Amino acid sequence: MSLFGNDKSAGRLPVSLITGFLGSGKTTLLNRLLRHDAMRDSAVVINEYGEVSLDHLLVERVDGEVAVLASGCICCTIRSDLEETLRTLLVRRDRGEVPPFRRILVETTGLADPAPIIQLLLNNPLVSHFLRLDTVLTTVDAANAVHQLDHQYEAVKQVALADRLLITKCDLVSNIAALESRLRRLNPGARIESVMHGEIDPAELFGAGLVDPEKKTVDVGRWLNEQAFAGSGEPAHEHHDDHANHSGHAHHSHDTSITSFVLAFDEPLDWMAVSRWLAYLRSMRGEDLLRVKGILNLRGEQTPIVIHGVHHVFHPPVALAEWPDADRRSRIVFITRGIAREEVLALWQAGRAAA
Asked: Is the pTM here over 0.85, yes or no?
């Protein structure tokens, strides 16, 4: 009997997080998205109605905290905390007190750290039983991003944690190639799109989670996207890219510490060894583990085990129904701050030697 629960992501409601630094165009994007027919069955969670300028879309106030938008979407403000807001929203939907919805969009403030919201969706049993993390979308202001990334760690972290990076205000700059290159160094696995005035097909932004939203099946390849982290000439095991070396850009004081790499293992792993290794990393360097995603081939398990964590908090590991393809290697993607691949690998090897 497996020690791991089965993946039930397809049955849970997808939640997408829209983040980005001050003035990067989150509200413009949100207004445009909510006009698309494909987004009509959405619930939007924001901090304040006036703060995000959605008033012109409000057609009916259900109460002081929930409104029905002209698009048919539900919009609500965060109560005392996000957990309470999400749980109350689901209860009211089930009671028929608000129109039904099939996805939730959460917009953060410009200075917000997205990590606590991701952690809530990964490992809070009162939330994660009903909801799943779908996409972390970060808007990046083409006109001001260089300055923000140089001076604000919040902006760097918003980029590093993203599944999708949306470059806004492209009409204000002549060339975004250097910015795109910098974003890829910070987060090789994120898809980068550019947009004018918030106009973009929602299909280009969402559906980055483990579950394929169209087929309702698991898509590990898209979710893990390990090829983006591995150099094309690397050997077939323990792939890695070290993106901390930004030659000639020493002033990038924040993003030079961000490193991304993949560890891959050909032989099946012992779960207790993996568990001890990850527990030690979380306890000693949790604040610097920005995001960890992996698929594991474990001894005694017939199907792969998926792990996913941000900082100290990891989703309980789950067993998939089957291997997605013929590749049976364990592969773990790391995005870290100031933790080199060699350090992580050395801890793994030391743990195995001591066992």
From this structure: yes
